[in-house]
Amino acid sequence: MKVIRRVSSSLRAKLLLLFIVLTSIPLLVVGIVSYQKSYDSVSSHSKATSMLQADLLARNIDILFDDTERLLELSKNPAVIHFLFSQSETYQEAKEILQTFSLYRDTYKYENVINISFINLYGKGISERRGVFQSNLNPLRNPHFLQLTQTPDLALKIPPALNSEYDRIDGFTYGNRGVISIMAAVRQRITHEVIGFMVIDLDDSFIKEFCAKVTIGKTGFFYILDQYGNPIYVPTVNSRDRERIAENDFSDHEGLPRDSYVLQTGGSPQFIVYTSSASTGWKVVGMAPLEEIVAEASRIRQLIIVSVILSAVFVITLNFFLTQKLTRPIQLLQHKMRLTASGYLEAKFKAGGTDEIADLGQSFNIMVEKIKQLLEQSILEQKQLQKAELRTLQAQINPHFLYNTLDSIVWMAEAGKNDNVIQLVKSLSRFFRLSLNKGRDWVLIQTELDHAESYLEIQKIRYRDILDYRIEVGPELRQYPILKMTLQPLIENALYHGIKNKRGKGLITIRSYAEGDAAVILTVTDNGIGIPSERLARLRADLELPIEAEESEAKENGFGLQNVHQRLKLYFGAPYGVTLESTAGEGTQIHVRIPMNKESRT
């Protein structure tokens, strides 16, 4: 009884029993190792087979070009050399050359060759399709011919992408037919001077036939790229496969003539194998879903998995009964912890027994209760702190303005300007009545505009010669709520830092527009001296500083921009606040972004 009681009350004893029972672990390790070895072996074999298929396709292309290049022996024919070197020819010479063309065709059975042509440096030429002709174009303007004059030992293979109609030296076109050309220089026997060029045109359909005969996987395909990465042949594939071809840029495999790798795309991984043609430098690329290449390995994996599962059934069944009593409380505690982590603090753990899990559950319940108390206290303190900060920010805005306005009233009264005194006192009274707003922090945009207009009227009386203003806000936007004292600090900033420092009369304009259904944008624009770019960048950075960090900067620029921006961020969050645009010598524009919400706030 003591042994049973000790095991039932000790988590350590339960774990020891569990590890003894878990004899299935060695079995799983053996299965995984067997699977990995067999998978690597079979998949390597499949990839090697795919590489051999690509090599076979490239070899077939090389053989065809090597066989076709036998026709280049025609460039050594005396009749051809004489035809290109002489300025005149006879019918008999031309006939002899064309008969030589036919003899080579009958001997070597060139089914893909659609035309053989010669042309000298002066545009005189002969071809199978056109006979003797005189080209209107200077052959040396052809970039391929120009290259051959510099490296006459080369035999160029020109793919369709680089084989323009200009390259048809005899003027004969093939319509929509794809043409691959083999070009070589013809040299004089003794001096080895280049006297002309030979062009062999091939129908590119042979590439399609070669690619169709070689397969990769079940649904894979081969395509051909030239040495510059331009497609020579791409089979008819769906749009997703075309995107994969475009994504496959070989940038990580430069300098490797042949390789294989896996292309990770938005869909299933693709196995890529490529090799280079020794004769042309073209890339033969095979693409197929990776799952098809390793299909045999996947079948072996399934067989191993089934074997391991069947072998482990007995152990798993035994584990289930022995560990249920242990794992059930742990799972319940885990569930409660996840609920608490998601924000639900009412989760409680209930478990019987006297072991470590029950003790852990009790500690968890105590911890959750303390977290709730701390959160409630923190939220309350944060709200009080925010309200205190807002009150402080508002208190920073008003005093200096009141002092200046009272000074203006005094000197106007002394000067006998009674009408101005009356108007200024009325505007000041209206300004502070709207500022107080019965202690509420929220007003309608209409009320905020009235408050701003009162301020502007006061300043217009004080600065009659340098200030004018316009308010252009549509009635449909005036019914949305806004924090009070939002516009006045911005207007004050525009007046004292923009307009007062310029010559001539200044203009302050207030406009607004809706940003979809999400936000209302209010702008305060002045035509003052503007802000230099370096200063503007510093002001924008200062807007994001904490309230304490702004104090020294605010002494220089006033509290307006920073205070308004911080107040809006405190209430609405980071997407809202103040943004600043300015051009030195032209003016400044301040944007205020607030949410479009007609619900009343207190």
Number of helices: 18
Mean pLDDT: 80
| Apparent shape | flat
Distance between the termini: 68 Å
Report on the structure:
- The protein is an alpha+beta fold.
- It has helices at residues 2-8, 11-21, 24-68, 78-85, 91-108, 143-150, 205-213, 239-247, 290-293, 295-341, 356-397, 399-414, 418-436, 445-462, 487-499, 533-543, 551-557, 560-572; strands at residues 113-120, 124-127, 131-134, 155-158, 179-187, 194-203, 221-225, 231-233, 259-263, 270-276, 283-289, 442-444, 467-472, 481-483, 506-515, 519-526, 577-583, 587-595.
- The chain contains 18 helices and 18 strands.
Quick take:
The protein is built from 18 helices and 18 strands.
Label this structure with key terms.
single chain; 602 residues; alpha+beta; six-stranded antiparallel sheet; five-stranded antiparallel sheet; 51% helix
Q: Secondary structure elements and their pairing?
A:
Elements lengths: L1 H7 L2 H11 L2 H45 L9 H8 L5 H18 L4 E8 L3 E4 L3 E4 L8 H8 L4 E4 L20 E9 L6 E10 L1 H9 L7 E5 L5 E3 L5 H9 L11 E5 L6 E7 L6 E7 H4 L1 H47 L14 H42 L1 H16 L3 H19 L5 E3 H18 L4 E6 L8 E3 L3 H13 L6 E10 L3 E8 L6 H11 L7 H7 L2 H13 L4 E7 L3 E9 L7
Parallel strand pairs: 13-15
Antiparallel strand pairs: 1-2, 1-6, 2-3, 4-5, 5-6, 7-8, 7-11, 9-10, 10-11, 12-14, 15-16, 16-18, 17-18
Helix pairs in contact: 2-10, 3-10, 10-11, 11-18, 12-13, 13-14, 15-18
